[in-house]
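--- STAGE predict ---
source: upstream dedup step, 1 unique chain passed
mode: sequence only
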Amino acid sequence: MVMLHGWPETWYCWRHQIPAVAAARTVYAPDLLGWGESDKPEGDYSVPAMVGRLKGLLDALGIGRTALVGHDWGGILSYPFALRYPEMVDRLFIINAAFHRRPPLAPLHRYYFHLPLLPELHARLSGDSLIRGIIRWWAANQAAFPPEVIAVYQEAFRRPGAHAATLRYYRASSVSGMWRRRRYRGPQIAAPLLAVWGERDPVLPVRAAEQLKEDLPATRVVRVPGAGHFPHEEQPEQVTRLLLAFLDGRLPPDAGGEEGAPGGPAAH
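--- STAGE serialize ---
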């Protein structure tokens, strides 16, 4: 299984899930290019380029087929990877990551990060408080992020070039694409797809999950109560149970199903 984190986290965000999954599968949880201990070069950070790098990583590791788990930017990269290389994706587990459309005014930071110089100046002046503020804002369960956990992510962004590298992801994406309103009409993802969504996510509210379901109708969506943008950290036991059940081929009921999803969260 390959697990891809989002902003502003690193591989460490999967610390709750890795031990349970590693009992039965080999788990790879890399820092994405620009994050944590990975290199932070200048260059192309567009989604197609990053999908190509992910393909190169799997080839280098000798992985021909894998379960793919992605949160936030990790999910944004996982969707096109599954479309481009369907033979390599066994199943796709998404956590709070928009696909084709997203509520246009919710992820305001995406617009802000496109501004020249100001985000860099903000990061320089704010220091550690920027990462702490983002996590506190986006998380519904504050107890999931004690100071020692936030410190791990703060340390990652103190590394030379870290802020500049992660900004390149946003600046390589299209602002106009964030206002996309039409339904997706392209190819469907072949692998089973389960999307887990924190019900109290302020940056990608549940409406984004509903749009995902409209664009990829075969998707199963499970809402996680008591979680914001980081369900895998805020409600780790629920997310781990869902992930293990999904890996075993036990899908939660689709919209309109009467049963509860594995571990208790209500299926949507």
